[in-house]
Amino acid sequence: MPQNEYPKLYFMNNNGSLNEMLTQDWNDKVILVVEDIDTNKIFFDAALRKTKAKILWAIDGKEAIEMFSKNKIDLVLMDLQLPIMDGYTATKEIKKINPDIPVIAQTAHVMSGEREKCMEAGCDDYLAKPIRLQILMDTLSRFLNK
Prior knowledge:
alpha/beta
């Protein structure tokens, strides 16, 4: 696949027919995606591109806090296992800056108690990897379409 081409993503709607995933227009929204794995970045880029949201990227918790403090952000998608500063610590720091910002945890660690640990850190919701496109869009819609 050429460098600037991304796969088309589809999901099943309620009546079972295939539709293109984009059903949202978030051109006035800014989403901070905190992710250090390139394949996950490609997924989020492809999933969010047509929503018209402005996407900011951070590769670790420290960079996420810096970007959050310098930008008006509407939602944070936070990986939890990150270099330099983990997502739990970064979420606590971001919530100190703005306790009302929605932070959605995303992690491959789905062990018992992980969801509770995320909520204790201040996350507003939790997505287990691999993330299904429909679940991602439904979760983001709950927070961005208020």
